[in-house]
Amino acid sequence: MRLPLKQVEPGGESVIExxxxxxxxxxxxxxxxxxxAVGWTRRALHRTGLPGWGRNKRFEYWAIVTPTxxxxxxxxxxxxxxxxxxxxxxxxxxxxxxxxxxxWFPGAGGMRDETNREPMEGSRNDVLVRMTPRGVNTVLxxxxxxxxxxxxxxxxxxxxxxxxxxxxxDRVFQYxxxxxxxxAQGVIVVDGVTHHIEPDESYAVHDRGRGRWPYFTFWNWxxxxxxxxxxxxxxxxxxxxxxxxxxxxxxxxxxxxxxxKISSHLDWRYDPTAWLRPWTLTGPGVEVTxxxxxxxRHVFDRWIVMSRADxxxxxxxxxxxxxxxxxVEFADVFGHVEEVERRW
Length: 344
What we know:
By secondary structure, this protein is mainly β. The chain contains no helices and 24 strands. Strands 2, 4, 5, 6, 7, 8, 9, 10, 11, 12, 13, 14 and 15 form a 13-stranded antiparallel beta sheet that branches.
């Protein structure tokens, strides 16, 4: 059985999304999607148990941005393959250090706690990544030959984060939790050099996924943190292509801590032959331009299993009209965009 999907053109008709305010199960006892789980939340209210083996996808991703560097940490488990990684990107030169890799047929792994409150850990050879939730805060730890990380991610007690369920059918669906405007404090050591990270000059972005994707997947994702034109704290979150044709989007804007949902499938325009040209994201009430300053490509291809990611760092500018009618304008908001293609 397929769930009824409202077909829309990117950047065209808006969709009606239901805000969920109580705890709900992602799956029915049969393992199929719980129809009551389709919607979005301001806090992590979905219990993300995924019965069975073979097509389940679980992942946690963090990116920490400081004035001088960008550090990312990833743990993923796709039943037949697990991945762990920690990376360091120098913002002055965009020199990248990447540690980690894949483990094939790893057996039952972490991230099976349906409340997502237990520590999550991944390792491969000399690389270890551990993520320990503590309420709205998270402790991040990584060890590798060239990079070590000990950070505390800090959120306000009433911090909001968007969770949304995207249904392709009752057997193929994804829960994603996107977060930004979090602060980081601690120490990062790169090639023996210690960097002290302070909360007043850093921020963190979080991406959580639990679900069962189509074998072939294509998506855009973008996020940014900064200030609006009138000086308010601003968090940007945009997604595209993978949600088109469904009744869900992962688009929202945070203004001074409050999430404002953008219930439209945005039109992403960019030149895949020239990634450093400006990108535009448009839709009802959304006029955004992203100007890249750095592009990177990562490809993993084993024929049946393939991943390609073209990512850019740069700055957002534009204007977004809230559901209240208020227009929020912004410029020079640092962030990223990406185009990802998967066979998995």
